[in-house]
Design brief:
Elements (H helix, E strand, L loop, with lengths): L3 H23 L5 H8 L3 H8 L7 H4 L4 H16 L5 H14 L2 H10 L20
Helix pairs in contact: 1-2, 1-5, 1-6, 1-7, 2-3, 5-6
Amino acid sequence: MKTPCEIVVWYVLPTIRREIAKEMVDTYHMKQADVGRIFGVTDAAISQYLKKKRGGSTLIEESRHYPEFLEEVKRSAKLIVEEKSDMSVEMCRICKFIKTVGLLAEIYTETTHLPAPSCAWGKDDDSCIVPQ
């Protein structure tokens, strides 16, 4: 059984990285090497994100929340480029957004065929107990 944290690692974080990289290159005309330095990865990894060989999830891209997700990505990319925030803060902020709107719970249920635990909904409690 997968935990919500595993869902985040496999589906959410790579998609966030890919979309932020795309925004930085397309909108802010940054070089892949510069984006790679911000991300702490090689420019080859950024190239893979841009070519959709790395990152991306149809579960997110086909979600009704995808347009809102992209707006959050644009906001994050702008803040990072303007050096008003950093990658780790923005990754956490978008991840929290994904929980708050229920997208993580949707992905969890879709991939596990189980009801999502409260932590997948961004509840403040520390429990992550899967309902049985």
